[in-house]
CKLF like MARVEL transmembrane domain containing 8 (Saimiri boliviensis boliviensis), 148 residues
Amino acid sequence: TKIIMYKPEFLYSPGGKRKGLAKPVLGLLVWTLIAGTEYFRVPAFGWVMFVAVFYWVLTVFFLIIYITMTYTRIPQVPWTTVGLCFNSSAFVLYLSAAVVDASSVSPERDSHNFNSWAASSFFAFLVTICYAGNTYFSFIAWRSRTVQ
């Protein structure tokens, strides 16, 4: 009997392992750009901060699992399903956070924080694109595992 170990592709981009750092780095930019401002004056940024910090922590957690190859020691976990659920939920919630972020940025509200908020909105959409791509590849991996 041959045991096939699943390599969790949802942790890095198909182009290589170095691109796997894009989500944590861009996600870190999103919430630090907002956290460095007086974001509490705009209630919508609370949602953006929650999503950005929550998925940044989870992404770093899964990245550590991948780097340490812990997933090989836990074969009972359906890693393809975990990857699909993680990426799809991150995509949906980050999309909503990016839209909320972009719609909350206004130069009239606080011109001092405008540049940081606009940059966080830009990076939120970049992170959303990253999670969308990884959702697609996680779905392909999940579908090929369920067919077998």
